[in-house]
Amino acid sequence: MSTVTDQRPREDRASRTPRGVRDRFDDVPETSGRVGAHRGRRTRGRAWIVFAWAALATGVLVAGGVYGLTRTVPGFSLFPGVSETASPGEGGGQKAVAPITDPKAVPADLRLGITILNGSSASLAETVGQKLTAQGWPVEGTADASPRTAKTTVVYYSSRAAEGVARGMVQELGVGQVTLSDVYPSPITIVLGADYTG
After folding, report:
1. CB 170 within 8 A of CB 97
2. Domain map (residue ranges) of the chain
């Protein structure tokens, strides 16, 4: 069996630079602009710059997530106490719209349809639907909301043109508040809360 040996002269092998010994590549002038990043002097405030970029990226991600939730989750609000909701008689900073309590007073160009949902544990949507139908209101249907944990009755209207009808529904029910929202497909959607007892 043949053995491979280092045939270079002994002096060549001895001239190799051992680990940890400085060589000519370590002797870089202080004034040179071509210094490796790992050997360059740290800039003052560099940590704050990294922190600022990280904070900015986090803020953008959070803002994007909140925006996505407001567009995909019905009823989601970053500040639950603030919404486009007005109780009966409140104008929300604008001139109050008069409630429409007579189906015959509804504008002809308003394609009205009313959906009633049980928002609480009580199942009263069917009863309310029958009552409104008997008065001449176009009730499209009744069903259960999910989840059924609503404490307050809310009448949702999908356009400003239907606000008068929404306020009329609140007046008819005797409780609740109106909210402009396109969460539900019907022009008027009544979500009965625990405050409505029939």
Report:
1. no
2. 85-192
- Please give the full DSSP string across 152-166, using - where no structure is assigned: S-EEEESSGGGHHHH
pLDDT for residue 167: 94
Domain 85-192 sits in CATH at 3.30.70.2390
Rounded to whole angstroms, the Cα distance separating 153 from 146 reads: 14
Query: pTM value?
Result: 0.54
Q: Are strands 154-157 and 177-180 parallel, antiparallel or unpaired?
A: parallel
The 3-state DSSP class for residue 136 equals: coil
Across the chain, how many H-helices and E-strands are there?
A: 4, 6
Q: Summarize pLDDT for 31-72 with one digit per residue, the tens.
A: 655 555 555 566 666 778 888 889 899 988 888 887 776 666
